[in-house]
Design a protein that fits this description.
heterodimer; A: alpha/beta; Aconitase, domain 4; seven-stranded mixed β-sheet; 7 strands; globular; B: alpha/beta; Aconitase, domain 3; 2 domains; five-stranded parallel β-sheet; 14 helices; binds iron/sulfur cluster
Chain lengths: ~170, ~425
């Protein structure tokens, strides 16, 4: 699995209340999508395009258990690469099926708008402007398979444990 | 090399002799706690099979009684689920209502040495019972409830040895703010607490600390078992358990001593508690519009007592709304019996029913743009309690109560020193 996409840069400690504000917690998925980063980056949701890549800093996604990873996936982002991912948010990326990598040095290697080439085979990220190549932390196979499969819900559905989405 | 308490709990529940940092383990879930947000129509998937209904707890806490049609619908879905699978441990709106983490504590649902998961980030609260308690996302909960297991990445452990004695009005909240200010993020790390101060620390005080560890981004927070802890659980739950003590030669990433005698009231500045606190004296006089005491971290009877001690015979400033929310309806009743509620209402506080309420910005105390609040709850992210242009400072219940009286951030020692 490989992607090439335009990058958007975010800083350290981006929290779940920024990704998906509390007031939107019980909204529908479509309504939640409209609120992504409304407090820290109003208007971004209209600029991001399918296949783009989010670059972030340390402890990305700190905070709540809310379905913020699902909202990021719903923006059409191909994946995200951050210096590190908050433990709870990492679970949510796996379980909601949003491709996410941890890669030291990523925030200094990219300027916003640079084109990134990302491989989920060998977990490398190339900056197509500078030709710099970075090595991300490998994702254990079982978790990567869940991410690629769209999270745990399709899996539980296939096993007859939860009903299909209506 | 030996194992830390959390490593031993994870090893025990994943059928392994040894686990170490870097491992990915699949563990048996002892208790799975579902709460109202899990049943929200935009999240819920009809569960067709429950692994073991006796391991499931269902709580409505974020928006109770229902504040709008969506939350009412979520609770209706939840009630249908409870009926369908005969879930006995169910906390609906009414006498057994409360915030999930407080109910888990008060009912002894979290057994020492076991694994507990809940779809709320402050689930590390139950780590106080020497339990591997982790906040997860909603899909994790569907997995745990239907399959009875879940996965964990094992991180390194930081050990905190608590020594000395806390002197009121300084509280565990101040100790937490000190740790968050001094050491910052503990992302992908576990924290373990022990030390000579333990016998003097109530379970409520300890639980303020483990609950707040969510703000450190810690994976797990645990306490080393002691008699206070074991008695507390045994009084509430007859089920057998095997508490886990850290090995003497456990490998810690770092070991830090905190002298409780040296602690003083701190206030976290808006947006984060990490490396962002000031001594209360340095921010005295900062104007506030609202003051809040409550949440899974500070809605206990001890917190009511601390607030009442400051507010007794005083009046809340006419420029401030003071909102106080008990963690459970049972705590509410106890606070009534102790006379705390009378003291607080006479002083001008609004005492609400048990709910997450203002803590998560869900209902009962939302901030308008440009307003400031000082809170004794869990989290002070931008926009957490209302408009993105509001500000949330954080302090102990005593500091919040003192600030409510003055109308601006105040030192509780000036009132009850
Ligand atoms: S009281 Fe606050 S932190 Fe605790 S569970 Fe409720 S919303 Fe979350």
């Amino acid at each position: 699995m490989e992607f090439t996409g335009k990058t958007w840069k975010f800083g350290d400690n981006i929290n779940t209340d920024l990704i998906l504000p509390g007031r939107a917690q019980l909204f529908t998925e479509e309504e939640q999508l409209r609120c992504v980063f409304e407090a820290n980056r109003p208007g971004w949701i209209d600029e991001v395009a399918a296949g783009d890549v989010l670059i972030g800093g340390h402890n990305f996604g700190m905070g709540s258990s809310r379905p913020a990873a699902r909202s990021l996936r719903n923006t059409g982002l191909a994946c995200m690469v951050t210096e590190s991912i908050n433990g709870l948010f990492y679970r949510n990326c796996v379980n909601w099926g949003f491709l996410a990598l941890e890669c030291e040095g990523i925030s200094t290697a990219f300027e916003e708008g640079d084109e990134a080439h990302i491989s989920f085979e060998d977990f490398t990220i190339k900056n197509n402007r500078t030709d710099a190549v970075l090595q991300a932390r490998a994702i254990p196979e079982v978790l990567l398979n869940t991410m690629k499969a769209g999270g745990v819900l399709p899996l539980l559905e296939a096993e007859g444990l939860v009903a299909a989405a209506c | 090399m030996g194992m830390t308490a959390i490593e031993k709990i994870l090893a025990r529940n994943s059928g392994q002799e040894v686990v170490k940092p870097g491992d990915l383990v699949v563990g048996q879930v002892g208790t799975a706690v579902l709460y109202d947000n899990n049943f929200a129509p935009s999240i819920w998937r009809d569960i067709l099979k429950v692994h073991d209904p006796e391991r499931v707890v269902v709580v409505f806490d974020h928006r109770v009684p229902a504040k709008d049609i969506v939350s009412a619908t979520a609770q209706k879905i939840g009630r249908d689920f409870v009926k369908k699978f005969n879930i006995e441990r169910f906390h609906d709106v009414g006498a057994s209502q409360g915030i999930s983490h407080v109910l888990v504590a008060d009912h002894g649902y979290a057994l020492p040495g076991s694994v507990l998961v809940c779809g709320d980030s402050h689930t590390c609260s139950a780590g106080v019972f020497n339990c591997a308690a982790r906040g997860t996302g909603a899909p994790d909960m569907f997995y745990a409830v239907t399959k009875g297991e879940t996965w964990f990445r094992v991180g390194e452990t930081i050990r905190y040895d608590l020594e000395g004695t806390l002197t009121a009005p300084v509280s565990m909240k101040d100790v937490f703010l000190h740790i968050a200010d001094t050491y910052g993020s503990h992302a992908n790390q576990n924290v373990e607490f022990g030390g000579s101060a333990l016998p003097e620390l109530s379970m409520n005080a300890r639980r303020t600390m483990t609950t707040m560890c969510a703000e450190l981004s810690a994976e797990f927070a645990t306490f080393e078992p002691d008699q206070v802890l074991l008695d507390y659980v045994r009084e509430r739950n007859p089920a057998p358990f095997e508490e886990q003590y850290p090995d003497e030669d456990a490998a810690y990433l770092d070991r830090r001593t905190i002298n409780l005698s040296e602690m003083e009231p701190l206030v976290a500045m808006p947006d984060t508690v990490l490396e962002n606190s000031q001594k209360v004296g340095d921010v005295v006089g900062t104007q506030i519009n609202q003051a809040f005491i409550g949440s899974c971290a500070n809605g206990t009877l001890d917190d009511f007592a601390a607030a009442a001690a400051v507010l007794k015979g005083n009046k809340v400033s006419s420029d401030v709304r003071l909102i106080i929310t008990p963690g459970t309806q049972n705590i509410y009743l106890e606070a009534l019996r102790h006379g705390y509620v009378e003291t607080l209402i006479e002083a001008g506080a609004v005492v609400t029913n048990a709910t997450c309420g203002a803590c998560g910005g869900g209902h009962l105390g939302i901030l308008a743009a440009g307003e400031s609040c000082i809170t004794a709850s869990t989290r002070n992210f931008k926009g957490r309690m209302g408009d993105p242009d509001s500000k949330v400072f954080m302090g102990s219940p005593a500091t919040v109560a003192a600030s409510a009286i003055k109308g601006s951030i105040a030192d509780p020692r000036d009132i009850v020193g």
